[in-house]
Design goal:
Elements: H1 2-6, H2 12-22, H3 26-44, H4 48-78, H5 87-98, H6 123-140, H7 149-166, H8 176-182, H9 189-200, H10 202-209, H11 213-229, H12 241-255, H13 259-266, H14 272-288, H15 295-322, H16 330-342, H17 346-351
Helix pairs in contact: 3-6, 3-9, 3-12, 4-6, 4-14, 4-15, 7-9, 11-12, 14-15
């Protein structure tokens, strides 16, 4: 969807593909799966420190490498086109990207590519907020002692009410107060909690989901057709709450059907995070270099993103995930701190 939009593809083929992809909005699926997997990870962790350490290892090493690669691409492809920038402005952006403010896009990067180097990373702060909040939710609701369906449902309803307050017509106003709220976990928490509820009730739900993907898919598509016929908002980031539960059913049924299929293709390699963090820098570089509005551009961008994701998994993500249990972090953090101070000399680098 990002590539169709940013490469400005038009015509019937692009419209059909775009419509098909919008039937399965990625951000709600991402949040639901996160709720399922992260709550499971929390319950399996031996300590809260181990839980947080493992979350950081999953997110930051690959993200920081992507930041360096993306920055290098900016200087290589568009050093003269980016706007005026002070050392403090550069360091502020760099620090934001390395911590939990990836949605911040300064004015000096606006002339590059589509106007935002890696805007799809706006979901990372929300994901990190959920990581931080989940142990507190477990403690306050006593989820270590009981299943907690009722209090979880109440919290879900509160988050959904906040979402409806800021998006009464199904669409967020991305300016002012609403724009700020959109970048927090609060109006999105209900989607995470759907995943948490499914995970905590999996023993009862799996019989209705396992190996039933086709049934759930057909039922979901029929429901989407009915909702569209009634002229109700179909989805996107601000998915209709009535559609999230059947969409969750489709995702979970798909995950537990034909299990060997993904193993045969991916051989237990997880390139999803790499695709997520590298596809927009790839698109931006291609737009900056004048890539044509064509299906070929999309194919090239997809291929590069897949290759970058595979390299990221093999060289960065997999090695760090393999060392979760005994990672201390010091040896890894020092080079990045040095890199941060190295970029104090931005003006000299640009002038060269």
């Amino acid at each position: 969807m990002h590539m169709i939009t940013d490469f400005k593809l038009s015509g019937a083929d692009a419209a059909v593909i775009d419509f098909g992809l919008r039937l399965f909005p990625g951000v709600p699926v991402f949040f639901v799966i996160s709720g399922f997997l992260i709550s499971q990870a929390l319950e399996r962790s031996k300590s809260i420190n181990q839980y947080y350490r493992n979350r950081c290892l999953r997110i930051f090493p690959a993200l920081w490498v992507c930041l360096v690669v993306s920055t290098g691409l900016v200087f290589t492809c568009a050093a003269k086109s980016i706007g005026p920038v002070s050392t403090s402005g550069w360091l502020l952006w760099w620090a934001a990207q390395m911590t939990a403010f990836q949605a911040y896009c300064p004015a000096f990067l606006r002339p590059f590519g589509t106007g935002a180097l890696n805007l799809s990373l706006w979901t990372i702060p929300i994901e990190l907020e959920f990581y931080l909040l989940l142990p507190a939710i477990y403690t306050l609701l006593g989820l270590n002692r009981r299943r907690g369906n009722v209090p979880l449902a109440i919290l879900l309803a509160a988050s959904l009410a906040l979402r409806c307050t800021y998006a009464p017509n199904g669409m967020f106003d991305r300016t002012g107060t609403s724009g700020y709220v959109l970048t927090t976990v609060a109006p999105h928490l209900w989607m995470f909690l759907v995943g948490v509820l499914v995970q905590r009730n999996w023993s009862n739900l799996r019989q209705w989901l396992e190996s039933r993907f086709l049934r759930w898919l057909l039922g979901y598509l029929l429901l989407r057709a009915i909702v569209a016929r009634l002229h109700v908002g179909l989805g996107g980031l601000e998915i209709n709450p009535l559609l999230l539960l059947p969409l969750t059913g489709v995702v979970m049924a798909g995950a537990t059907s034909a299990r060997s299929f993904s193993n045969r293709i991916l051989r237990h390699n997880d390139i999803s995070y790499g695709i997520y963090i590298y596809h927009m820098p790839t698109v931006n570089v291609m737009v900056q270099l004048g890539a044509a509005a064509s299906a070929l551009s999309v194919a090239i961008a997809l291929t590069i993103s897949l290759c970058a994701a595979a390299v990221s998994w093999k060289l960065i993500e997999q090695p760090f995930l393999a060392r979760k249990s005994h990672f201390t972090g010091g040896r890894f953090l020092i080079p990045w701190l040095r890199a941060l101070f190295f970029f104090k000399h931005l003006k000299e680098l640009r002038s060269r």
